[in-house]
Amino acid sequence: xxxxxxxxxxxxxxxxxxxxxxxxxxxxxxxxxxxxxxxxxxxxxxxxxxxxxxxxxxxxxxxxxxxxxxxxxxxxxxxxxxxxxxxxxxxxxxxxxxxxxxxxxxxxxxxxxxxxxxxxxxxxxxxxxxxxxxxxxxxxxxxxxxxxxxxxxxxxxxxxxxxxxxxxxxxxxxxxxxxxxxxxxxxxxxxxxxxxxxxxxxxxxxxxxxxxxxxxxxxxxxxxxxxxxxxxxxxxxxxxxxxxxxxxxxxxxxxxxxxxxxxxxxxxxxxxxxxxxxxxxxxxxxxxxxxxxxxxxxxxxxxxxxxxxxxxxxxxxxxxxxxxxxxxxxxxxxxxxxxxxxxxxxxxxxxxxxxxxxxxxxxxxxxxxxxxxxxxxxxxxxxxxxxxxxxxxxxxxxxxxxxxxxxxxxxxxxxxx
Length: 417
What we know:
Distance between the termini: 13 Å
Helix content: 40-55%
CATH topology of the largest domain: Rossmann fold
CATH class of the largest domain: Alpha Beta
Number of helices: 15
Low-confidence stretches: none
Number of domains: 2
Pfam families: Glyco_trans_1_4, Glyco_transf_4
Domain Glycosyltransferase subfamily 4-like N-terminal: 20-182
Mean pLDDT: 94
CATH superfamily of the largest domain: Glycogen Phosphorylase B
Strand order of the largest sheet: 10-11-9-8-12-13-15-14
Largest sheet: 8 strands, mixed
Radius of gyration: 22 Å
Protein name: Glycosyltransferase
Organism: Hymenobacter citatus
């Protein structure tokens, strides 16, 4: 297909531009699409600020959230009305929405413009979709509205069968385009040296590192249990890079396990005397990942996890829960999702897939698998080196150039239908 000759008017919609993986992807899309088309960003409101500014025009619909059920309905309808007006004013050719709330507003405000949805994560396994609102989303909104889209782009292949079987989405609407990574940029940032105090921590013992929001989705609490068991047998450190709503809960949980905890947000000296290090949000997380011994990723569910891919770019051995969706697609691309969750470590082409740590009936055994696997890897530098090199090679499949050729093609195809 030949590229279209004119610059399209693209409207990108997301609820907010605060902290989050979807917001990072939204920023990357905005920057890249603006090279070929006219891009305007729209948000429901400016709560949370703009963590990832793109330099493109941004419009706020100026509608807050929260309140009682009636307030929520009113705000929802205001968003639909204001987005419809914005689409008309801009003469938008295509509106691409990121995250579910934006998808509904995008679909219900649809006019002459084409609509593309970008689905960032599993819907069937998202523990945040619960209660009466969750029932409404799963039983009414997604089945009733998603087929109105001109195209639905998922970030992982394993999201597609969920949408088809669970929500009745037509298969011809679906296309998978994985997230892309700024490989060279991440490799360069990863070379930034640690401070002398940080270097002392990394030199004191092997370091396990994990990166991401401190949240229910990332499921970090069981990792602390496995780490505490590992610490009984060998010296090791655990470093958390990131912040989130479970910060205080996780710190308390670690302390109750008898672990010595460093908290970067407190005025305490950074020394090797601690077991667990909460480093908080970092402008450059990669400098903490590259010198680590193993990257650990215990998520309960994902989409196409950016933090996992970034760790692989840094050349670190990765040990990840085989959660829906993304890790298996990245680490074991020639395999398919197992019918039942794995209960043993699965050596994959580019890392190690592990049992999920969110099943109460098997949690004790699953934690033991994690502890044993990490211990074996910590004693096997040759295997870590091999897996780290393979991980880095794998991420060449997800460069900006390769992925965005697919995005440009689908946008221009939809625009000319």
